[in-house]
Specification:
One of its GO terms (cellular component) is plasma membrane. Keywords: Cell membrane, Membrane, Sugar transport, Transmembrane, Transmembrane helix, Transport. Belongs to the binding-protein-dependent transport system permease family. By secondary structure, the protein is mostly helical. Helix content is about 70%, strand content about 0%. The chain is globular and about 75 Å long.
């Protein structure tokens, strides 16, 4: 912590550290507790640690759910990029009143609650035979995240000077070649930022996974967590152990892409 910052900044940092740090600490500590110690005040910090929750949950179901999560997150990321990259480039370069309409439409789509789309998509996927399949969840996640990705990518393409594209055109390069060899490499930080964010969001998506995967055996990790809650009670150590295990892959992705996320999310904030 930077103690040269003002008192307001220090208090704010301490507040958010406690706000987010205490729940994370509780999750990790609970994952090493016995069920009888979870809500025992005397065992809040001092208890005999046990790894039974981890050994009990590391099984074939976890491996299968991990594979489903990887497939959904990677598939949704690829599909979102295939749609949002050309869409964002077009919105950045075309000067027409329809661009404003398109941007407003994207914002409206982004504001629509996810729950409102479940029933229409369920009927649509039922007609298309996509229920209980990875393709259905991937398409639903991509539809959810594409407006956000397009809006976030547009400033990266707007930051590429038009003079570079004009120089490419003078040298005989066509539109696709100019985009592929000049524009896209210069906007690669934006594409990588969107890739990281989309992967993280698709990894943790829960509602579409439990709605469109009809067989619990096909659930990804985010839905597997919900199976720790039953009518007979909640296996708190098991739930917290799964939470820790499922957080490790996205923690690795977040750490490896932290600089991109930090810089990419501020693009367009200052002119």
């Amino acid at each position: 912590m930077n103690f040269h910052a003002g008192p307001v900044a220090i208090v704010t940092k301490l507040f958010f550290t406690v706000l987010y740090g205490v729940p994370l600490l509780w999750i990790v500590l609970t994952s090493f507790k016995d069920s009888a110690d979870v809500f025992e005040p005397s065992s809040a910090l001092l208890f005999e640690p046990t790894a039974q929750a981890y050994t009990r949950n590391v099984n074939s179901n976890l491996i299968d759910a991990l594979g489903q999560s990887v497939a959904i997150a990677v598939g949704a990321t690829v599909l979102v990029l295939l749609i949002s990259v050309p869409a964002a480039y077009a919105l950045a370069r075309v000067t027409h009143w329809s661009v404003t309409v398109g941007l407003i439409a994207l914002i409206v789509l982004q504001m629509m609650p996810q729950t409102a789309m479940v029933i229409p998509l369920f009927r649509l996927f039922g007609d298309w035979g996509l229920l209980d399949s990875l393709a259905g969840v991937i398409i639903a996640d991509a539809a959810l995240l594409t407006p956000f990705a397009t809006l976030l990518l547009r400033p990266f393409f707007r930051a590429v000077p038009m003079s570079l594209e004009e120089s490419g055109a003078l040298d005989g390069a066509g539109l696709f070649r100019t985009f592929w060899l000049i524009v896209l490499p210069l906007a690669r930080n934006g594409v990588l930022t969107i890739s990281s964010i989309t992967f993280l969001l698709a990894w943790g998506e829960f509602l579409y996974a439990v709605s469109f995967m009809l067989s619990p055996g096909g659930y990804p990790l985010s839905a597997l967590l919900s199976q720790q809650v039953s009518a007979f009670g909640i296996d708190w150590p098991g739930l917290m152990a799964l939470a820790v295990l499922t957080s490790i892959p996205i923690l690795i992705v977040f750490i490896s892409s932290y600089r991109l996320l930090r810089d990419g999310l501020t693009v367009g904030a200052v002119k």
